[in-house]
Write a structure and sequence with these properties.
Chain lengths: 187, 424
């Protein structure tokens, strides 16, 4: 099954709207290639969003996979007139926030130091370190705004927060990221 | 900082083993897609869909990704490979479940019907399932299983870990770090042990006093808890006197007093051990014997573990985090050193809960959005899908629900009537 459908960087959705509707209709009828194309278009960004919030490779995989399983379970009821990506991203980011909160509690309970995320030690180190210093809720709004490119209004709806809270979290997060990344080679 | 630069950094940050993760997840998602039950359609399209599904399954099983699906299906149950049922229509083995969701606790009846009790943060069954003790903030309430409140009290600090004694007469709960007991009718609230987190080691990031207390499963008024100094203590809930004590496991995270009162399970993510409890013919004469570790494979992380209600069996949900992919098992340890793997699945398993008769296990599988009912003896396991949706009103995003109890293992007759007051 082909899964190499890379998503154009920066695009909100992995597929043109008309094509996505067509694929969803075919998948609802049981088409395996249609499912594969939807998966290939949306997996990379869902997985990346989860990873940037939780900073744990295994958890990010589980969270993104969980979201796709929810999508498969709800496929028959899905309204094809609505875009697929916001629905998927809403599940991913909310579950990533939940996981981060639970993990924080679990780490407290087991008295152990946080495990360093398994990642490339050189490339992207700065931004990962800087993100790791933010609370999960702030990481989530940064990812939704600057990776997935939702508006603050859309983010507020996805996270069920007042828009002012989203704006203030974004502002605080960007200020903190700026402080940490300032002067680093990649900033 | 420059927002465009931030976008670039977020897009470029490397994802460890991203391609392998994508392949693994595709195998699981494709497996779920192959097993889903499409919406009903007229006969001819339905036949076509069935043929397409068969073709899809065949293609999946022959493709490289399908090999993983086949392996997964073959490993899912040791005894059998059931298809997941789309909804919980019946609780295998009977009984009722208490399930804590992001929206509050639900009671699930034997026929699968369910009711949300309210926006409580934590809940526990009374021993006979006649009531539920539920917590919200600083308030402890006793509810009927339909959610009707019978009484409430408010404490001076946040309440947690309510536990109803098997006699039905007492509820233990923690207010801050003070351990309290209260009668089943909401009266006689009193402090059993104050400041249980005292003497927590300065280098401990959290006190072992966070471990939830547990009542004796014999119906005796004896409560086990762990204090800040890392001592496992059993006290009489009426007298407050110390009945037995021993050092608790290092980094203990939870415990379970079961096996007819003869064993206490101590658990942490790294280890499991069972401590025999001896009774010299009287509930007030208890002794804690030397704890026996249970053998775990290298790299095992214990996610959950529980003692069977009336048998010396320990069930554990264990995850192995590997670069080649996460795998989880449900293992049952016998009274000796033997153990039996009941189940192996890809991804992470969650909680494991014994049925009231100790003949089945319910394992949560959040990654597949399923509950797995596993018989200990012969018989087919059952998988139930769409668990998240079942406990998410309106399909709102939520965490995978947590099992708060499978009712009811109580075997002790209720003692001492208190009129119409809730006693279990």
């Amino acid at each position: 099954m082909a899964v190499d459908g890379e998503v154009e960087a920066g695009s909100r959705e992995g597929l043109p709207a008309r094509r996505e509707r067509q694929l969803l209709r075919e998948a609802q009828r049981g088409s395996r290639p249609a499912l594969a194309e939807i998966y290939g278009a949306h997996w990379p960004r869902a997985h990346r969003a989860a990873y940037l919030v939780v900073h744990d490779a295994a958890a990010a995989e589980d969270i993104a996979q969980d979201a796709f399983l929810a999508a498969v379970a709800a496929l028959d009821r899905f309204d094809r007139r609505r875009p697929f990506a916001p629905w998927l991203h809403r599940i991913v980011v909310n579950r990533a926030i939940d996981w981060s909160r639970r993990e924080s509690l679990r780490r407290d309970l087991v008295e152990s130091e946080p495990q360093a995320p398994a990642r490339d030690p050189e490339i992207g180190e700065d931004v990962m370190k800087a993100l790791a210093q933010l609370p999960a809720e702030q990481r989530a709004v940064v990812v939704l705004r600057h990776l997935l490119e939702y508006t603050p209004h859309e983010i507020a709806r996805m996270l069920e927060l007042p828009r002012g809270t989203v704006n203030s979290r974004l502002r605080r997060a960007l200020d903190r990221l700026g402080e940490v990344l300032e002067g680093s080679p990649s900033a | 900082m420059n927002e465009e630069r931030l976008r670039e950094l977020l897009r470029e940050a490397p994802l460890p083993a991203a391609a392998a993760a994508e392949r693994r997840s595709l195998a699981v998602v494709a497996g779920a897609f192959a097993q889903r039950q499409p919406r009903k359609r007229p006969a001819l399209p339905r036949l076509a869909t069935a043929l397409a599904a068969a073709t899809l399954l065949a293609a999946l099983l022959l493709s490289p990704a399908g090999a993983a699906v086949r392996h997964w299906v073959g490993d899912t149950f040791t005894a059998s490979t059931p298809r997941p049922e789309p909804a919980l229509a019946k609780i295998p083995g009977g009984g009722r479940l208490l399930v804590q969701s992001s929206f509050g606790p639900w009671v699930v009846q034997p026929d699968g019907s369910r009711r949300l009790l309210g926006d409580y943060e934590e809940a526990t069954w009374s021993p006979h399932g006649l009531f539920v003790a539920a917590v919200k903030g600083r308030t402890l309430s006793a509810l009927e299983p339909d959610g009707t409140p019978r009484w409430s009290i408010t404490a001076g600090a946040r309440i947690g870990v309510p536990r109803w004694s098997l006699s039905g007469e007492r509820i233990a709960y923690r207010a801050g770090f003070d351990l309290h007991v209260i009668a089943g009718d909401g009266t006689e609230d009193r402090l059993l042990a104050g400041s249980t987190a005292a003497r927590t080691r300065p280098d401990a990031r959290i006190s072992p006093a966070y471990v939830a207390p547990d009542w004796s499963p014999t119906g005796a008024n004896a409560l086990a808890y762990v204090n800040g100094a890392g001592r496992l203590r059993i006290v009489g809930s009426e007298s407050g006197s110390l009945l037995a004590a021993a050092p608790a496991m290092h980094r203990i995270t939870w415990m379970d007093w079961g096996a007819g009162g003869r064993r206490i399970l101590e658990a942490s993510p790294e280890a499991l051990r069972v401590r025999p409890v001896w009774s010299a013919g009287h509930p007030s004469r208890l002794a804690l014997r030397k704890a026996q570790p249970l053998p775990l494979s290298a790299g095992a992380t214990v996610v959950d573990a529980a003692l069977a209600p009336n048998r010396p069996l320990v069930a554990a949900s264990i995850t192995y985090w590997k670069r080649s992919g996460t795998r989880s098992t449900v293992v049952v340890f016998g009274p000796g050193k033997g153990s039996r793997v009941l189940l192996t699945v890809p991804g992470s398993l969650g909680q494991v809960e014994w049925s009231p008769d100790g003949r089945r296990l319910l394992a949560a599988w959040p990654g597949a959005n399923q509950w797995l009912f596993l018989p200990l003896g012969r018989g087919k396991g059952r998988a139930v899908a769409n668990i998240l949706r079942a406990f998410s009103p309106g399909g709102r995003p939520a965490s995978f629900p947590r099992l708060a109890g499978w009712c009811c293992a109580a075997t002790v007759a209720r003692r001492g009537a208190r009129g119409a007051a809730p006693q279990g």
